[in-house]
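Exercise 7b. Backbone tokens:
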């Protein structure tokens, strides 16, 4: 019997894979699917989310994106990848110069991404303002609905609704408690809050949605993203370390103003939800994955901005490590990059 502490997407995905391999599993969480994974937009964006000086993170992101379709099939998910592709747009010329610097980095890593003029971008997404300075197309970055995926996984795996504590730890336990993992181990985790909105996006009279693709924007050097999914448009997300758990008025103001600069008609949409979630951040933005030397429990946390994307890889590596599957040399390198001891 394996014990999974934490029923966010990382814990649920790991438990579902263990169960799919024929193992007995129990998941412990007082309030499943209620923390970071509940608020996440659901972008699977290894290319569009590349940032400078995060080299150890890129192979993890690319590998997990590659494994996602197989993972969804293994856990029998009713929701598949939404293959919308992603456009990254620049608010002004300085933003465009930043976009092109990142494009160089993306292409150096062999990622599929190409320059578009503003009018080419508007041919793909006519609701974008003619005022954008230019864009980059990332056709391979897609999205999923994290809430729908977690609802499905919660139907598959048994959850004990209680807080886990030290007696639950041991070699057959994996701790996927997000920020809560710091209650068990001395880990350098910190909450990085993000404000995020969900808007109603009814189709127009011709049945067309306002937006089809994920659009990420840089506006006056600030990032903003728009994720269209059915009749919903997710608008996110700020990044703040002020420990304020409620959505912040100033953050919401920034998001709406920056989004309206690239997609003016967003002002016509009704607001469905305004919320804020806490990302489990680490000092180098790379997750924490490995055995705790004291209890021998497996730690799987610190997925920071990319836990939805990284869930496929985290779940497979977690299930492999617990059940004694020998890691391939490639996996060994990925695991090494996430060693929780790397800061000591
Ligand atoms: C606004 C926002 C937008 C985001 N957008 C994206 C995105 O588009 N794409 C992407 O890849 N990532 C995104 N992320 C990041 C992503 O949400 C996280 O990296 C991911 O959800 C982390 O998942 P997790 O399962 O580790 O943690 P969580 O989802 O936080 O789950 C941890 C679980 O552990 C439980 N727990 C804690 N302590 C205990 C205990 N003692 N006993 C039992 N259970 C415990 C909690 O109740 C919780 O259910 C976003 C995050 C935010 C906040």
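Sequence design result:
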């Amino acid at each position: 019997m394996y014990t999974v502490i934490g029923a966010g997407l990382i814990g649920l995905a790991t438990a579902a894979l263990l169960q799919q391999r024929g193992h007995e599993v129990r998941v412990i969480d007082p309030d499943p699917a209620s923390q970071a994974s509940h608020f996440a937009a659901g972008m699977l964006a290894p290319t569009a989310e590349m940032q400078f000086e995060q080299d150890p993170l890129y192979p993890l992101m690319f590998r997990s994106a590659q494994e996602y379709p197989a993972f969804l099939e293994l856990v029998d998910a009713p929701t598949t990848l939404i293959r919308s592709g992603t456009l990254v747009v620049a608010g002004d010329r300085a933003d465009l110069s930043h976009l092109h610097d990142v494009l160089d980095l993306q292409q150096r890593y062999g990622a599929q991404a190409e320059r578009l003029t503003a009018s080419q971008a508007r041919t793909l997404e006519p609701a974008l303002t003619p005022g954008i300075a230019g864009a980059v197309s990332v056709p391979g970055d897609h999205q999923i609905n994290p809430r729908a995926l977690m609802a499905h996984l919660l139907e598959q795996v048994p959850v004990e609704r209680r807080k886990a504590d030290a007696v639950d730890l041991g070699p057959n336990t994996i701790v996927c408690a997000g920020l809560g993992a710091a209650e068990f181990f001395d880990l350098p985790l910190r909450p990085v809050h993000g404000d995020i909105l969900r808007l109603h996006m009814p189709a127009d009279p011709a049945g067309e949605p306002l937006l089809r693709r994920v659009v990420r924007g840089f506006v006056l050097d600030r990032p903003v993203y728009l994720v269209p999914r059915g009749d919903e448009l997710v608008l996110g997300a700020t990044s703040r370390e002020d420990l304020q758990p409620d959505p912040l008025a100033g953050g919401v103001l920034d998001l709406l103003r920056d989004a309206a600069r690239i997609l003016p008609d967003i002002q016509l949409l009704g607001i469905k939800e305004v919320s804020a979630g806490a990302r489990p951040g680490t000092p180098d933005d790379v997750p924490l994955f490995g055995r705790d030397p004291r209890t021998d429990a497996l730690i799987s946390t610190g997925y920071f901005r990319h836990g939805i994307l990284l869930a496929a890889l985290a779940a497979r590596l977690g299930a492999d490590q617990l059940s004694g599957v020998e890691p391939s040399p490639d996996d060994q390198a990925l695991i090494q990059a996430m060693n929780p001891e790397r800061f000591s």
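Instructor comment: Residues 27 and 132 are 47 Å apart (CA to CA). The two ends are 32 Å apart (CA to CA).
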